[in-house]
Amino acid sequence: MGSLPKVPQKYAWVVAFFVVAILLMPSSGEGSVPRDSREVKAVTWNIAAVNNNPFEYWITGSEQYNTLLKGFGEVVENPGPGFDFEVSELFTEKMAAELFTEMENAGWVRIDTVREKWTSELSKKKAISEFLTDKLIGKKRLVSMFDRVTNTIETTTKTVYRPSPINCYSGKLTKVNDWWPDWIDFIFTHKLTVKTKKSGTKQKFVREMLKPITRDKYPAISEEEEGMSVPLQTLYGAIFDTVLAHSLNALDKNWASVRKEMCQSLNLGKTNRVIEILSYTYSDADVFFLQEASMGLVNGIKGNPLGSIFHIVMSHDFDPDRNQNSVILLRKSQWSEPTESTSAVLSRMSDKGVGAGDLAVAVATHKPTGARVVLASFHGDTNGLLTNPVVSAVYSFTQQEPRKLIFGLDANAHTKGSHDILGIDDFTQHFVSKEMSSCFGENPNPANYTTFHARTHLQSQLNKGVLHLEQSLKGDRSPKDFILFKRADFSVVSTGKDNTGNREYTENMVFPTLRFPSDHGVVNTVLMMR
Questions:
Q1: pTM here?
Q2: Alpha-carbon distances, residue 69 vs 74, 222, 256, 474 (angstroms)
Q3: Residue 185 in contact with residue 102, Cβ under 8 Å?
Q4: Measured distance CA(314)–CA(310) in Å, rounded
Q5: Which of 419, 439, 516, 514 is nearest to 481 (CA)?
């Protein structure tokens, strides 16, 4: 496609609206290729990665970007003088006392126990060698869960950020006094007006958005820690931001300018780029299975021509406070009004560890054939342990009545499995046992990767960070993304992968990139109904 002519900025949105609308119209009339009515074009995409933190992944960036992240990685690996202070020298007793007072005023419970953990343990740890690099913190999600909810929040009027180095917060982080009062106010004091699932609004404190960390999903956390997980993760989050801010200021006084540049490239334009790829590159899709979608993306789709051309299916437990919801888009010309059926599937599971919004299920009629089809989108937990139980539950639901199935998912399957990690072989054996096949067949190649990313150390799951020279060795290359279907219902016509946004997949390339905003490739397939 050639480039569009330049138009005045104030009319650009009008031009974009009509261009996308034309592209999304089903082809018909003279010159169009007749389409087999049994054909279904399906796309699955986990659109995660750079939602909030511009420093999270190794990508192609400026020389300053690479230098900064290499330097921070070296500090984490070998902290020296000026970095590895005791935690209480950075996050002071005064800051801790202010935080505990706010927790008590909020009516949180077990604050005395959290305070004792601070006094006897956390305050005495070395900031980097014993706190930031503590692998148990990662396994228990004591920082990452807090960061997931509070990092970046979409209100009805603007995007707001927790004062932190790992988002697009625009305030100064040079000295603690610059940002700590704003941090307390952000979490505890100011109510935000946010949109709800049903297009309404509600006012909430950020502290009310925090989620308990459950042993069902994260077994590393103790029973005692589970009971106080909200105040505990808040304390860990406060220490984390303090240590990061100090370390970056000690490393490079110009780090904030690097962050500003990357925010403009990676974060602030992500939703628009995702919608652009869906609208242009996959303008012929009949169904999109999206994972790790934010309320901001859903609202963006609703305000785009996509919103009038596709039914938008969100689960009954869609969580607008998270960026990890599964969503299904069904082209209205091909599908009847869908019936959202997520709870009917979840009720078939004995394991209740599926997070709110992780699974979305709908039932709709395929208009060209009249077939009733179950459509499901799912994002598995980090180790993939819930994937097979969800596959079983979805299969059971399809057996309730004679229904066909198309299921797009990030299975979080890994090339090699273990007792606590789902391997591709176990995943394959399981879905085959449920009368299913996949877009990659019933014996998918373990080296047919759909992800290849490498995280830096400058993010909330520090245990996943790798040094710049270790990207190929320690980066995550896995066959995670699939479209499943009942083998009696469909056959595969063609399947493709994409990590460029142009229906092309560059093997051995770490992504996201400046033009492809996810660490998961798009998987697209054409199915033929039997």
A1: 0.75
A2: 9, 33, 13, 16
A3: no
A4: 13
A5: 439
